Structure formats: structure tokens, C-alpha cells
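Reopening this one. Same input as before:
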Amino acid sequence: MTFIEMLRDAQRRNGSMLCVGLDPEPSRFPAGLQGDAGKIYDFCARIVDATADLVIAFKPQIAYFAAHRAEGQLERLMEHLRRNAPQVPVILDAKRGDIGSTAEQYAKEAFERYGADAVTLSPFMGFDSVQPYLRFQGKGAFLLCRTSNPGGDDLQNQRLSSIEGSPLLYEHVARLAQGPWNLNGQLGLVVGATYPAEIERVRQVAPTLPLLIPGVGAQGGDAVATVKAGWRADAPIVVNSSRAILYASPGEGFAEAARREARRTRDLLEAAKQ
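Same output, byte for byte:
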């Protein structure tokens, strides 16, 4: 299946819009694992096993592995995901944004080394920085569009010209992704849950694209407002929660606590569709 088909299948199979972000911080690990970067795989694998039937996707953040020289553990984790949760697509959160042969190498890293189903990208350098990823048939790419951080206003919320009514930069990115850049139907957009009005605007501009929506949970995004702004029956939304699920409990029962929090969040998101 293509990435988009995998998303739709996981949404139906698990009745979910929830994505669990895998952002391992050894200092926050529970007793018995705490502070041990050599246990990143063990921690994440237990989270995956506890939540795989509740999610639309998993999203490992590559920096949390690379900072601890744990790329090998990330490779093991990706193998674990393919073996134990093959029905759940995996989005590698890398936010790459280079061009030419460098972008080609980053694409190989994401899709060949790690075997990800999709990757996050920065489109700031233009289509040159996106095209190498689209050569991988069936894979997906989420372009940063309207991110959840306050500093996103510095660029994303600026108008392209001084002419009244000209589009904002994030609207322009959404139009490109919906239209001329989306050569094989592989693109989606990243829109932060902290800006539900912008989610709604992106959905107007890009009505058929999947949206990856971080910021629910520890970052304070409103889950109900997020779903009402972005969900459409024919266009998946992937609502990410990381810390609220990963660190739901500091004790030995952390995986069971993560499952309870994931189920609560999934059910809250599903109820918001009504």
C-alpha cells in the first residue's frame, strides 16, 4: 500500500486519528531505565506494543535518537515496528530541507536506511528540496506549513507582498502542496494544534491533503478544536501527542499508563467528529 492508503487503513482499523510521537528522553524514563540512553529502544518498543492498536501512526523524532548516538536503536525500533505493527505507518520526523545530492542522501536515509513510510520536510528552499523524496514510489512527505511554535509568525504568517489580500506564506505553501508540487499524491502538511483557525484555513486551501497536527497534550493544543477545524471524512488528520503519552507514569507500569492516556486521547478525538 502507499503511505496514504496505509493511513486510511489504520484510521479505519483502529478508529483513530491519534499519532504517538516517539521522543525518548532518558532523563524522563521510568525507574529501572532512567538516565540510561542504552535503553531507548527498550522504552520505545514497550510504548509501541502498548499502543499499536490505538493509533493511526507513530512518529519517531530523529534528533532524540541521534543526540544519544542511538541511530542503531532507531533502526532496531523501525524493524520492531514493521514486525509487530506492520499495519501502522511510521512518519520519520526529521524536518530535512536541503537540495540536490544532499536531499537525495537524506531521502535514502529516511526511506532506505530507516524504512520510514513518510518524512517531515522544510519547504523553505523550494520544490528542489522536496522532489528527491517524491521519487520514492508510495512514500509520503509532510511539509512544514503552519507550525505550533510562536516563532512561526516570523515567516509563516507574513504576506507575500504588500498588496492587500495577497496570501500569507503558509497559505502559499498549502496551495503548492495541494497543486503543482503534489506530483504523485504523496504530500501532506504540518499544521500546529495551537492554531485551530489556521488549521481551518489550511483545510480550505488544501481540502484533500492529510494533515499532521502536533501540539496536542503537553504543548497545550485543544484536541476538540483541532478535530473540528481539520477533520474531513475524505482527508485524514494525524494528531500527534508525545510527552503526555510517553511519560504518563514514572513507574514500572509506564506502558500501561501510556496505553490508558492514548486510549483517552483517541476517544476524545473521535468524539469531536460528532
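So the earlier flakiness isn't reproducible anymore. For the record, The radius of gyration is 18 Å.
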